[in-house]
Amino acid sequence: MSEGRKLRAGLIGLGAMGRNHARVLSNLDGVELVGVVDPAGDVTGTLRAPVVPEVSDLIALGVDYAVVACPTALHEKVGLELAANGVCALIEKPLAQSVEAATKLVEAFETAGLVAGVGHIERYNPALQSLRTRLEAGELGEVFQVVTRRQGPFPHRIADVGVVMDLATHDIDLTAWVTGREYTSVSAHTVSRSGRLHEDMVAVVGQLSDGTMVNHLVNWLSPLKERSTVVTGDKGCFVADTLTADLTFYANAAIDTEWEALRAFRGVAEGDMVRFAIPKREPLLVEHERFRDAVEGKDSDIVTLRQGLRTVDVAGAVLRSATERATVAIPPAARS
Please, what is the Cα angle at 333 between 331 and 336, to 5 degrees? Predict the structure, then answer.
């Protein structure tokens, strides 16, 4: 890209998430939003960029990259069309609705030598970024368990996938990312209480490659909105609230006791609590900045399509486990 020229970006999908992408892209340094694809047109009347009905119309406008925020079931078709036309892509999570579709996308973009990423936005949450840095630095010692809770009211925008592919993929990706470990097995139960085609509640017990135990509770049936990640280890536990981007550390106390009965009980005691002051930039903006930099050829930390494929693979194992009522082993990810 010539120095001084703005990257030409397109957006596909103007749903709730698509409108957030449009807002960020419209004000992103070094980027010009040149077109948006949505069959319904500009329903808000607020966009400065033209809205066209087909992906081919967007490609004809000449774009360096596109953000794919249409329904998950369309990711494969749209992504393959972009790859075939030499357009880089940031694809909303999950990468696709099946391992087969996700694999096709990985192969298409890798073969074309194009920059492509997945919008796993929790990786850009300040609380989780701080948590990952602290785990890498060994502040928790050995990690024993990761527990996530993600619940809230039903998002009416979702019709093509259930709670596992839509919401649990957040927790699967962030858990593997903050710990730097892969899933090796999952055991899950799902229920459908709302009369929809797909599951709306899931409980998962899993294991990571180093033996860390994982629990995910996810539903979209609760009026209480909760986004919690708790990591427990040798030295205490971290609690990350990704709604408020707060990170709190609860330390194990070192208390000497002369009472033999207590000394023999090698448990933990409540120690100091620390809430960390973290600069709180909007995760979606950070995600876009990182992807822009990657398209420009700079070193940038984006979620690769292979990482996105791995998350879809684990989510597929969760659904399989629930159907088969059995623990499902997950083989190591294939390396490119």
Answer: 145
Walk me through the domains of the chain, giving residue ranges and CATH numbers.
Answer: 7-121+284-301 (3.40.50.720), 123-281+313-329 (3.30.360.10)
Name the token pair of 60: 């004809």
pLDDT score, position 95: 97
pLDDT digits (tens, 9 = 90+) for 75-114: 999 999 999 999 999 999 999 999 999 999 999 999 999 9
Largest CA distance in the chain: 78
Q: Is 303 helix (H, G, I), strand (E, B) or coil?
A: coil
Q: Give the residue-averaged pLDDT of 152-174.
A: 87
Burial class (CB in 10 A: 0-12, 13-18, 19+), 273: exposed
Task: List CB contacts of 45: < 8 A, sequence separation 6 or more.
Answer: none
Distance CA(91)–CA(75), nearest Å, equals 7
Please state at what angle helix 169-179 crosses helix 126-136, rounded to 10 degrees: 30
Residue 307 Rama label (left phi>0; alpha psi -120 to 50; beta): alpha
What is the spatial distance between Cα 51 and Cα 173, in angstroms, rounded to a whole number? 32
